[in-house]
Amino acid sequence: MSNNNKRLAEDIKREISASMREFTFDTVVSVSHCDLSGDGAYCKVYISTFEGGEKTVAAVERLQKGAGIFKKNINSRIKMRKIPELTFLPDNSLDYYDKISGIIDELNEEAKQ
């Protein structure tokens, strides 16, 4: 990804995060990162929650339904030739971390015995 695309991806992340204030959730929802395609036509927006799992999936579905609001806000604040198509995806890295941490804890317990 070029430096310009990285900068645009960060700008998009910032605008989506700011626009999320219009939505109410029963958990803390954040944008972990954005991946902008080389041609700038598509942007994958990774969403995470503290609870993970089902809460993240529910938040992603809700945000995907409001993708038009985010595109409108991005269009009004970021100068781009074409506003990318937004795809919201769950970022399960916290779940993965918990799983790996649990495995390490189990191995440590077995090693002590």
DSSP, total strands: 3
Shape: elongated
* Proportion of strand residues: 15-25%
**Structural class assignment:** alpha+beta
* Strand and helix order: HEEHHEH
Question: At the fourth CATH level, what is the homologous superfamily?
Answer: K homology (KH) domain
C-alpha Rg (nearest Å):
17 Å
Distance between the termini: 48 Å
Q: Reading side by side through the largest sheet, how are the strands ordered?
A: 1-2-3
CATH topology: GMP Synthetase, Chain A, domain 3
Kindly state the percentage of residues in helix: 40-55%
Mean pLDDT across residues: 88
Overall domain count:
1
CATH architectural arrangement: 2-Layer Sandwich
In DSSP terms (H or I, runs of 4 or more residues), the helix count works out at 4
Largest sheet: 3 strands, mixed
CATH class: Alpha Beta
What does this protein structure show overall?
Strands 1-2-3 form a 3-stranded mixed β-sheet. It has 113 residues and is α+β, with helices and mostly antiparallel strands. Helices cover 54% and strands 19% of the residues. The longest helix is centred in the last third of the chain and has 20 residues, at 93-112. The chain has one domain: 2-Layer Sandwich (GMP Synthetase, Chain A, domain 3). Strand 1 and strand 2 (42-49) form a beta hairpin.
Which terms would index this structure?
3 strands, 113 residues, single chain, GMP Synthetase, Chain A, domain 3, alpha+beta, 54% helix, 4 helices
